[in-house]
Amino acid sequence: MQTLHASKCGLSTAQLPSSILDVLDSLTKAGYEAYIVGGGVRDLMLGLNPKDFDAVTNATPAQIKDVFGRRCRIIGRRFELAHVYSGRELIEVATFRAPPKTAVTSAAGMILRDNNWGTIEQDFARRDFSINAMYYQPRKSEVLDFCHAVDDIQNKTLRLLGDPTLRFEEDPVRMLRTLRFAAKLNFSIDPDILAIFTPQMTQLLRDVSPHRLYDESQKLFTMGHLHRVMPMLIKFGIWEQLFADIPTEITPFMERAAKNTDQRIQIGKTINPAFFYAVLLWKPFLERCHSYLAKGVAPAEARAQAGLDVLKRQATRTIIPRFAETFIREVWEMQTRLLNPKPQQIEALSSHARFRAGFDFLLLREKSGDDATQGMGTWWDSYQTMSVDEKERAIGQYNRQRAKNRRKTADVTLVEDTKNTATSIEPLVKESETRNRRSRKSTPASSSNDFRSRNDQRAKLNTGEINADHPIMKRKRVQRDLSQVVFGPTQ
Ligand code: ATP
Ligand code: MG
């Protein structure tokens, strides 16, 4: 172990927010050791802006709770942690961990329970990469480096601590972390990792919960280098493990959307991580639509069912939360509305809650060469900057054009539902329809009480109010075997 002076590593307390200093100081005052560890130290040394600062200490979660009282909450089961609030900031405080006991690992060697407290040396050995295992004590101006991690920072190398095969077996998510950090930091991957990072090794990801994989997919989408990591996911065979029906081919649309996501992050704009799922699943969605249409299903029903099917199959890999699934289906449905809007609904559409996401999606499609958008991306783009008079003229012109040449194309999203002439917008996604289908199945002989409560729930759904004990929230989600997932009405 070498102790480095913080200034030699380019670190100083001036770079740290008061919240992390407050947490470290309180622990030190109470007689415990406390350090900053992980991404915070790594990113500061690389001159990057850390996402957050994690603390580590020899105090147990119960002792941390004693120090911080009501400012502290103990969370997690597999990995017990303390969440400490300092002002409005939340700091994650972990206790030094010892090696896992064999009794709490799965048959494949995966760690299932991991609350065995230990020393700083043991804690170090449990971390994933050398560059994530430096301990910084800002008040002492010290960085503890147990494995020449500083050299790896300098050489821009991602090196796993210990035997790479064992470390991947213990926690297969480390494969995703390898690609994420390599892409984010632009580091090269140590040859010892490359040697064992085979498609066979990626099969281990099948044992990881699809909830955790969803979280990891979000980190990949939002790290600011999505564009760089996508080909790596394909190259290392991770893509198939993360996505059920998305071909291992980066389409111009995905490419453009990924670059756009990275740019937005760079300039500090917000992104909805579900948006990129909508992009990835767009092609499978269209294919499903076509297949329903070919069977004679009405367009609106085909789109609704195709959306549910595609998301159901994706849930074998990553469980997308319900609200994000709804967002994705709404963005897809918006494509139809924006492509062939009823003239009297144009203004209402432009102020719809899903307009921005739907329009961005349409424009990205158009700019990536998808001519099925028929130039409507550009049309909406200029519409938004027009004065009231200009808008009126643009709508009139659009209306005449529309009457003259009824848009005909192979794209199913173009198919229009003509009956409605109202100026208000119909709901994009009718959650209640899918839910009714399900509840009829699960409660064949419902009492009048059940019926009333279902009606109450339906009313709540229509107002967008869905609470945790609503049946829609309890649908069985985890189905790992894709061959068991059939297309058709969702159960
Ligand atoms: P960032 O927050 O920028 O994504 P990070 O390195 O801080 O990167 P976190 O997921 O916040 O990553 O984890 C904090 C630290 O905990 C890591 O730096 C690493 O030392 C350790 N760690 C996290 N996940 C694992 C894992 N799966 N296996 C071993 N150590 C891990
Ligand atoms: Mg972190």
TrEMBL record:
The molecular function terms of the Gene Ontology recorded here are:
ATP binding; poly(A) RNA polymerase activity; RNA binding
InterPro entries per record = NT_sf, PolA_pol_head_dom, PolA_pol_I, PolyA_pol_arg_C_dom, PolyA_RNA-bd, tRNA_ntf/polyA_polymerase_I
Report if keyword Nucleotide-binding is assigned: yes
UniProt superkingdom: Bacteria
Q: Tell me, what's a Pfam family for it?
A: PolyA_pol_RNAbd
Signal peptide start and end residues: none
Which UniProt keywords are listed? ATP-binding, mRNA processing, Nucleotide-binding, RNA-binding, Transcription, Transferase
Q: Where is the active site?
A: 52, 54, 128
Query: Does this UniProt record's set of keywords contain Cell membrane?
Result: no
Q: What is its EC number?
A: 2.7.7.19
The segment annotated Disordered runs over: 397-491
Q: Which GO terms describe its biological process?
A: mRNA processing; polyadenylation-dependent RNA catabolic process
Enumerate the spans annotated as tRNA nucleotidyltransferase/poly(A) polymerase RNA and SrmB- binding domain: 186-244
Q: Which reaction does it catalyse?
A: RNA(n) + ATP = RNA(n)-3'-adenine ribonucleotide + diphosphate
The chain positions of domain Polymerase A arginine-rich C-terminal read 296-408
Ranges for domain Poly A polymerase head: 34-159
Function, as annotated: Adds poly(A) tail to the 3' end of many RNAs, which usually targets these RNAs for decay. Plays a significant role in the global control of gene expression, through influencing the rate of transcript degradation, and in the general RNA quality control.
What is stated as this protein's family in its record? Belongs to the tRNA nucleotidyltransferase/poly(A) polymerase family.
- Write the protein's name: Poly(A) polymerase I
Q: Which organism is it from?
A: Acinetobacter silvestris
The organism's taxonomic lineage, starting at the top? Bacteria, Pseudomonadati, Pseudomonadota, Gammaproteobacteria, Moraxellales
Q: Which gene encodes it?
A: pcnB
